[in-house]
Write a structure and sequence with these properties.
Low-confidence stretches: 1-8
Distance between the termini: 38 Å
Order of helices and strands: HHEHEHEHEHHEEHEHEHEEEHE
Shape: globular
Radius of gyration: 18 Å
Helix content: 25-40%
Largest sheet: 10 strands, parallel
CATH topology: TIM Barrel
Number of domains: 1
CATH superfamily: Aldolase class I
Structural class: alpha/beta
CATH architecture: Alpha-Beta Barrel
Strand content: 15-25%
Length: 321
């Protein structure tokens, strides 16, 4: 059952107007909201590992792991619990406070593989890290098992606005995704949900995405904003890269609409300049993924991230614990 939404703080028309605000005015407003709810000196750092790669039956047009696309990504078996926990230890040593695990599944199926994921979550928690997984569709009883294992966050992105959704994905609906988020909430797990920019969507579709997220009850605790990484062999391989100002604009609007959320500057950072990323942090982004790969796509090298954060006077959250 889909959860009841709260009355929106802003209407969809007002969210569109917010996105159309002159950029510097919007960033100035968002920076004030950010500082009212967060310490701007700190950035939450997560690491993301693909624990089961390739062969996904979904046809998401952006995804290198879709079985519908001809990409270099090969289908691989689920990693062992021991291998995953080795990666988690390394992530913690590098400064991560959250470890995220992704499996290229349409939905969770009960059985040995799901039991292994539950063991991964337990092991990550024993290391003193926050645990997050993204596994596709989720039934209520499965969400309850993940909660019992200690899961902190479940990532399930809405990807784009309702008017653009079926242009990107046909094997499930936006309402299917909302139903999974309801199961996550009902189990008492924090929600991590955001979207992807640069998939040929209009600004109206971006406003729809932000409005949908902001009117969830309660709002997501974590909101990743991704820029499309156009992978050869996917339907969206030919899309032009989105202008950096649209990333800044969307992050700023997300911060105004969801003041308490952790907003993650996510995929696509490897193609952004340091200056563009700095603008995103000023506009309210306060989380990144680090490590050289996000599932199957490139991410800035750790040394580059360390240098950038030092230049900006930002510190990983883990360092103050």
């Amino acid at each position: 059952m889909t959860r009841t939404r709260v009355a929106p703080t802003l209407s969809l028309t007002e969210v569109e107007a917010l996105l159309a605000t002159p950029l510097l005015d919007l960033v100035f407003r968002a920076a004030g909201v950010h500082r009212a709810h967060h310490d701007p000196r700190y950035v939450q750092c997560s690491q993301l590992l693909s624990v089961k790669t390739g062969g996904c039956p979904e046809d998401c047009g952006y995804c290198s792991q879709s079985a519908h696309s001809k990409t270099p990504v090969k289908r691989e078996a689920l990693l062992s619990v021991g291998t995953v926990l080795e990666e988690a230890r390394a992530a913690k040593a590098a400064g991560a406070d959250r470890f995220c695990m992704g499996a290229a599944w349409r939905e969770v199926r009960d059985g040995r593989e799901f039991d292994s994921v539950l063991d991964m979550v337990r092991g990550v928690k024993e290391l003193g890290l926050e645990a997050c997984v993204t596994l596709g569709g989720l039934a209520p009883h499965q969400a309850a098992k993940l909660k019992d294992a200690g899961l902190d966050y479940y990532n399930h992105n809405l990807d784009t606005g309702r008017s653009h959704f079926d242009k990107i994905i046909s094997t499930h609906s936006l309402d299917d995704r909302l139903q999974t988020l309801s199961a996550v909430r009902d189990a008492g797990i924090h929600v991590c949900s955001g979207g992807i920019l640069g998939m040929g969507e209009s600004r109206t579709a971006r406003a729809e995405l932000l409005h949908q997220l902001a009117t969830l009850d309660p709002q997501p605790e974590s909101v990743p904003i991704n820029s499309l990484v156009a992978v050869e062999g996917t339907p969206l391989a030919g899309e032009q890269r989105i202008d950096w100002t649209e990333m800044v604009r969307t992050i700023a609007a997300a911060r105004v609409l969801m003041p308490k959320a952790v907003i993650r500057l996510s995929a696509g950072r490897s193609e952004m300049t340091d200056e563009a990323q700095a603008f995103c942090f000023l506009a309210g982004a306060n989380s990144i993924f680090f490590g050289d790969k996000l599932l199957t796509t490139p991410n800035p090298e750790p040394a580059r991230d360390a240098t950038l954060l030092a230049k900006l006077g930002l510190t990983a959250v883990a360092s103050r614990k």
